[in-house]
């Protein structure tokens, strides 16, 4: 059983900052990648930032220079530092991870896991 838990959302004024955290726990053998998605009301879920096991990162164009994704491999935790927040950043932010667990017969194939989401609201 794997749990993915996000935290750190909230209400902030435009121009402010927030730091999101996401921790994966369970019988984890290895974490291949971790990413943050967001979904605003009436819109599709979109990829915001991702980081793979080697440390390479990727960002949605509209957040480049404002958001930073980082990872603590020892804690299976990913962070999203968000600065210069804009009202259009308002959304539910979800953590996604692709990882392998240790099963009774050995290492399992990689699977996707999602957190429950955390609300980020940026007021103008």
Describe, in plain words, how this protein is organized in 3D.
The chain is mainly beta and 124 residues long. Helix content is 0%, strand content 63%. Strands 2, 4, 5, 6, 9, 10, 11 and 12 form an eight-stranded mixed beta sheet that branches. Strands 1-3-8-7 form a four-stranded antiparallel beta sheet, with no helix packed on it. Strand 5 and strand 6 form a beta hairpin. The chain starts with a strand and ends with a strand. The model has no long low-confidence stretch (mean pLDDT 96).
Average pLDDT works out at 96
Number of helices: 0
Q: What is the CA-atom radius of gyration, in angstroms?
A: 15 Å
Distance between the termini: 41 Å
Secondary-structure blueprint:
Elements: E1 2-7, E2 10-13, E3 18-26, E4 28-39, E5 46-52, E6 57-59, E7 67-72, E8 77-82, E9 91-103, E10 106-107, E11 111-114, E12 118-123
Concise structural overview:
The chain is mainly β and 124 residues long. Helices cover 0% and strands 63% of the residues.
List keywords for this structure.
124 residues, mainly beta, eight-stranded mixed beta sheet, four-stranded antiparallel beta sheet, 12 strands
């Amino acid at each position: 059983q794997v749990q993915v838990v996000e935290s750190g959302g909230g209400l902030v004024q435009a121009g402010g900052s927030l730091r999101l955290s996401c921790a994966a726990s369970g019988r984890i053998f290895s974490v291949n990648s971790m990413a943050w998605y967001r979904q605003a009301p009436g819109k599709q879920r979109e990829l915001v930032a991702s980081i793979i096991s080697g440390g390479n990162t990727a960002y949605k164009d509209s957040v480049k220079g404002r958001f930073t994704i980082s990872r603590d491999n020892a804690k299976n935790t990913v962070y999203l530092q968000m600065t210069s927040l804009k009202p259009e950043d308002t959304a539910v932010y979800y953590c996604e991870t692709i990882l392998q667990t240790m099963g009774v017969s050995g290492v399992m194939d990689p699977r996707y896991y999602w957190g429950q989401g955390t609300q980020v609201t940026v007021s103008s």
